Amino acid sequence: MSNEGPANVPGVKVLVIDDSNTIRRSAEIFLKQGGYQVLLAEDGFDALSKVNDHEPDLIFCDILMPRLDGYQTCAIIKRNTKFASVPVIMLSSKDGLFDKARGRMVGSQDYLTKPFTKDQLLQAVEQHRRAAA
User: Fewest CB within a 10 Å sphere: which of 1, 33, 55, 119?
Assistant: First the structure.
């Protein structure tokens, strides 16, 4: 299968986990404009079933969520050998060193501060999609 760059990315599925409807919707619009398939989840529990059912290629995960926070969600995904290699990028409204370090401890590959621009989001997908390939 040839890959002609970001415009030709059939089959690349990106899961966005965030309890904010606004963040989910804007991420969905940006990612679809980038040519990606988009899955949305509103919390960690919803996300875990979607990861299992749809096997995304990349996951954006909010840190502050009710019930199961982003760190717990990421740790559970990474503990499953089937999904351990799937890049997880943490989303947070705080740009804190502690949050970044804690994210790495549970296995996240990167950190994106909200609100993000379309360019920041698509750049993160490209960077980690290439790394995973």
Answer: 1
